[in-house]
Structures are given as structure tokens and as C-alpha cells.
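Q: I'm building a small set of examples for a reading group on sequence design. Run inverse folding on the following structure and report the sequence directly after it, with nothing in between.
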């Protein structure tokens, strides 16, 4: 299939314009002025694999330039993006003051909100109405944003707070059941699902950066295929889980056994506050716990990994703000079953690590859409704690295997881009 050109601007809509989103937007605005570099974004610094001359990814495939990105979105708190940056306290005053006029010009639209899904937050800038009315309002917002900015292409990324843990129910199984649930104002349809539905119905690629149940429910998977919309998720792989997907393949590669892996975090931003609620933490816990089983294959190597005890904790600690600390204690064993330990103390900045992921996903999902791809884009597993896959496909968690999938897909799209240039 021939790749369509990225010959126009791209809209980037964000569900939740707090710490992560404001950091992404501020970073892109700063980069345009030469005041900061988007380090960590493969789309800007990564190079294609191979020998000899290795072009940058954004030279090999036709990605929208930073100058062509137009930002908008929703938030349940008022103000503008300058206010959001000041509240998040991720970036210093010098950096946000330099782009203050641009930040103040971006004001989030009222968000779709249900306090039962995020109990620690009290939204003050929210839409009112039934779930059907909220879904229609979100669709109207997407159309209005694109019309106001004269855009032909757009992506939507969920960068909001984690919702409570939820298992798919009957209302989530088919498009017909989901539509009936909207009409009945069914409480089991969450805000995250409303945004995903609105994006898919408007033909807008969608990515879920949270553990919340959203476009991965069967009804929206079916709808995305029918509408020809690419989706991806879920839960940005930023800190501790990133380290796990590097270290766990090391143990497996050396046939070293594991007895226990204890992970704890302290985090003081809004995400940490939300995750202090047990029902919200459970959703995050499920994505964090899924990594090791997939990577280590205990069913194949029971004598090495069959009895692994894996524990994950997140603790809200306001003094740290966005500067998260992830601490891992790993009990492993080697020759003659002699015990050993590895300890990791990862002091990172959560939003600084998430921002390049958001940028890459926006550009690459748009690339997928222009290439005619629909449904789950498993080649983007590199970016997720809990990668979604097409039906029947097993998720890959090993970071280096994920990297191979990413570059293989980009290589195929680069060849499509080359054919486009020849044409």
C-alpha cells in the first residue's frame, strides 16, 4: 500500500492536559525556538538500523515536522497551559517564561468526567450530560478543533489520570451493546471509553497512555477495524517498567534463576495522588505485573522462574512532585543455586520520560493512518507497559524484541515512502 504524504499540519489532541501533556507541548514549543531539544524521542534522534549511512527515522519515513504540530485537548481543571506548567512544576520558570505567550494561548476544553472513576480528583472544568451527550460533545470538540485550525489530520492521546480497575462487561462486548449503553447512560462506560469512542467515530487515531480500560474493549476494537482507525496502548512505559524490560531478558539470556522481584515507587504528582486510591492503583498494578511473566516464560522455564514472587507498590509522597524514585530489589540465583541480589534505585522525572513517548506516538500513529493501517498497532509495543495486540497475538515485553518490531515496521514504511518519492 502506498503511503500518503505528511504534507500538512497534524493536530494532537490530549485527554488530560496536566504534567505530561504540558511538558510535551512546552518541549515542542521550546524546540521550535531552539531553546530545548526533544531528547528521548526516537522520531527526532533515532536512526534506522543497518550498516554504513544510517538516516534518522524522520528522514527515512515521512513524519510531520515539529513546526507542523497543533496542540489542543481537554482537562477537568480550568486555566491555560502556562497555568498547567506552573502547577505541574516539571519545568523551571526560565523555560516556561520563554514560551509563555504560546502556552497561554492554549486552553483546554472542558473534560468528560465521572468522579467515581477518579475518586481523588474534583473536576471543576467538566462537561455535563448523559454518556451519549458527552460522546456527542467530544466528537463535536474534535470536529471544531480541526475546523478552527484548518486541519485535515489529527490524533488523540489519553494522558489523563488512571481510572479505577474494571473488567470488560456485557456492555463492552459489541458495538450494538456499547451504543445501547450510551443511550442508557450506563455507568460502566467510563470517560476513557468515551474519548476512545469519539476518536474512532471521527476517524482519529487513538493511543491510551494509561492503564484504564478504553479502546481495548471488544466493542471499540471492532469499531476501530470497521472505521479503519489505528489504535495503540496501553500505559506509557517510562521508568521502573522500562528497567524491568531490560533486566529481565538479561537474566533469561544467562539462564539465571529468579526467586523474587520487589518494586516500590514514591511519586508526588497528581498521578501519585490518584494512585494512592486502591481501586485506581489496581489498574496500574495489573499493567506493571504483566511484564515479567511474558518476558521470562515461567511455563517454559519452571525450574528458573516458576516460583518467582513479584510485588509492586506505589506510594504517594508529595515532597517529590514529578521526580519519581523507583526502587527494585531482585533476588536471583546461579550456579549450584547460590543466592545473589541486584538492587536498582532509579531517580527519574516521570513527565520528562513520558513526553518523548507522546511525541513519538502522535507522529507514528499518524504515519500508520496514512499507510492505511487499522486496529491495534502492535509494532508500537516498545512504548507500552501492557502492549495491546491483534486477536490471537501474544504481547512482546522484551524491550529489544519490541525495538526489532518497531524498526521492522518503520523499515517497511520507509520503503513505502521511497516509492512515494519516486512517484
Amino acid at each position: 500500500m502506498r503511503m500518503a504524504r505528511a504534507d500538512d499540519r497534524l493536530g494532537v489532541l490530549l485527554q488530560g492536559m496536566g504534567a505530561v501533556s504540558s511538558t510535551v507541548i512546552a518541549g515542542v514549543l521550546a524546540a521550535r525556538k531552539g531553546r530545548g531539544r526533544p531528547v528521548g524521542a526516537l522520531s527526532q534522534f533515532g536512526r534506522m538500523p543497518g550498516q554504513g549511512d544510517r538516516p534518522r527515522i524522520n528522514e527515512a519515513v515521512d513524519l510531520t515536522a515539529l513546526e507542523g504540530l497543533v496542540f489542543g485537548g481537554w482537562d477537568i481543571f480550568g486555566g491555560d497551559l502556562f497555568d498547567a506548567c506552573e502547577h505541574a512544576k516539571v519545568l523551571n520558570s526560565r523555560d516556561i517564561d520563554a514560551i509563555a505567550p504560546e502556552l497561554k494561548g492554549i486552553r483546554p476544553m472542558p473534560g468528560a468526567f465521572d468522579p467515581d472513576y477518579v475518586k481523588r480528583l474534583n473536576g471543576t472544568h467538566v462537561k455535563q450530560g448523559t454518556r451519549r451527550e458527552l460522546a456527542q460533545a467530544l466528537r463535536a470538540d474534535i470536529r471544531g478543533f480541526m475546523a478552527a485550525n484548518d486541519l485535515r489530520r489529527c490524533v488523540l492521546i489519553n494522558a489523563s489520570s488512571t481510572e479505577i480497575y474494571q473488567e470488560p462487561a456485557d456492555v463492552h462486548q459489541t458495538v450494538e451493546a456499547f451504543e445501547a449503553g450510551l443511550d442508557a447512560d450506563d455507568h460502566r462506560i467510563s470517560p476513557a471509553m468515551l474519548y476512545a469512542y469519539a476518536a474512532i467515530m471521527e476517524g482519529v487515531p487513538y493511543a491510551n497512555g494509561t492503564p484504564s480500560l478504553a479502546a481495548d474493549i471488544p466493542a471499540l476494537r471492532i469499531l476501530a477495524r470497521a472505521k479503519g482507525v489505528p489504535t495503540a496502548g496501553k500505559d506509557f512505559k517510562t521508568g521502573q517498567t522500562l528497567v524491568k524490560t531490560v533486566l529481565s531478558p538479561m537474566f533469561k539470556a544467562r539462564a539465571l534463576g529468579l526467586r523474587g522481584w520487589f518494586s516500590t515507587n514514591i511519586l508526588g504528582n497528581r498521578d501519585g495522588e490518584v494512585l494512592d486510591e486502591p481501586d485506581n492503583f489496581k489498574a496500574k498494578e495489573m499493567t506493571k505485573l504483566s511484564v515479567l511473566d511474558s518476558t521470562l516464560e515461567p511455563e517454559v522455564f519452571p525450574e528458573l522462574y516458576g516460583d518467582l514472587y513479584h510485588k509492586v507498590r506505589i506510594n504517594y509522597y508529595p515532597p517529590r512532585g514529578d521526580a519519581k524514585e523507583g526502587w527494585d530489589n531482585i533476588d536471583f540465583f546461579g550456579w549450584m543455586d547460590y543466592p545473589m541480589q541486584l538492587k536498582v534505585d532509579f531517580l527519574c522525572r516521570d513527565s520528562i520520560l513520558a513526553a518523548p513517548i507522546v511525541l513519538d506516538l502522535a507522529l507514528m500513529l499518524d504515519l500508520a493512518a496514512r499507510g492505511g493501517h487499522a486496529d491495534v498497532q502492535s509494532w508500537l509495543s516498545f512504548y507500552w507497559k501492557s502492549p495491546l495486540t491483534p486477536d490471537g497475538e501474544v504481547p512482546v515485553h522484551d524491550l529489544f524484541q519490541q525495538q526489532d518490531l518497531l524498526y521492522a515496521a518503520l523499515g517497511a514504511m520507509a520503503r513505502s515512502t521511497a516509492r512515494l518519492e519516486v512517484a
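The CA atoms of residues 4 and 286 lie 38 Å apart.
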